[in-house]
């Protein structure tokens, strides 16, 4: 490696995060930050790291897209037979992380995941582009395959099968999750690594707000 990665650093100085500027509910605060990221045209503003716990107790993480947010929590969709689907079936504890480097911000979430209803999952599935619907039927997600030609052949057959269909039926093994948070942390980069960290912790029906040392 040509450059010593230990020497790579950036001083953050765009914004501050003060308690008096915070909204009382963390989901509302998240929506504010997410809207700002979208308005700033940040690439993949809805991308998030989703971390689950495997059978042996090891964490497993991957980046996927947030597909919904409400006062109940955060939602995303996947194949229930994928690695994350199997891990969530065994242990619904999940962590999410959003990082918007252009705004020098990140949000960390801890919560419990549960499946969305079949009706909600079907409605979203059939709102996707047809190619994405075919892709969900094509891929036996997270399983070993002999080669890419396996996917390409399955895609070709499904495209022909549903050539006259406007929408496809939702695969039984595909659907959504709702992550209901009990902890949300907002991180704003600041100079000299003295970053602002504000954490919301669920207390009964409300939320306790504290500042953490960076």
What does it look like?
It is a single chain. The protein has 214 residues and is α+β, with helices and mostly antiparallel strands. The chain contains five helices and nine strands, in the order H-E-E-E-E-H-E-E-H-H-H-E-E-E. Strand 1 and strand 2 form a beta hairpin. The mean pLDDT is 95.
Class of the largest domain, according to the CATH hierarchy?
Mainly Beta
CATH architecture of the largest domain: Roll
Cα radius of gyration in angstroms = 20 Å
CATH superfamily of the largest domain: Electron Transport, Fmn-binding Protein, Chain A
Measured between the Cα atoms of the first and last residue, the distance is: 30 Å
Assembly context of the chains: single chain
List low-confidence stretches. Answer: none
- List the total number of helices: 5
Strand count, sense and closure of the main sheet? 9 strands, antiparallel
Estimate percent helicity.
10-25%
Helix-strand string = HEEEEHEEHHHEEE
Q: What overall geometry do the principal axes of the alpha carbons give?
A: globular
Tell me the count of domains: 2
Q: Give the beta-strand count.
A: 9
